[in-house]
Design a protein that fits this description.
The chain is mainly alpha-helical. 76% of the residues lie in helices and 0% in strands. It is built from four helices and no strands. The model has no long low-confidence stretch (mean pLDDT 93).
Length: 71
């Protein structure tokens, strides 16, 4: 599955689309979505996306904290 993730990342397939592809490859059973999400997001080839996600999350937390402090 690592080779599939590398290929999807190299072809600039979005994270969401990669999760859908991976879910289908896993058989689309009841637990396949969670497993596909973990497989894609934990893939070494998705480190940039994980970093961007973490930066966005951190910025949103700071913004919410500032809004709460203003009230």
């Amino acid at each position: 599955m690592a080779a599939v993730q590398e290929l999807l990342s190299d072809r600039r397939v979005s994270v969401i689309d990669s999760i859908l592809v991976t879910r289908e490859l896993l058989g689309a059973g009841p637990s396949a979505l969670g497993e596909a999400k973990s497989t894609v997001l934990c893939s070494p080839s998705r480190s940039m996306e994980r970093r961007w996600h973490q930066e966005l999350t951190d910025a949103l937390i700071v913004a919410v904290d500032q809004l709460v402090e203003e009230d």
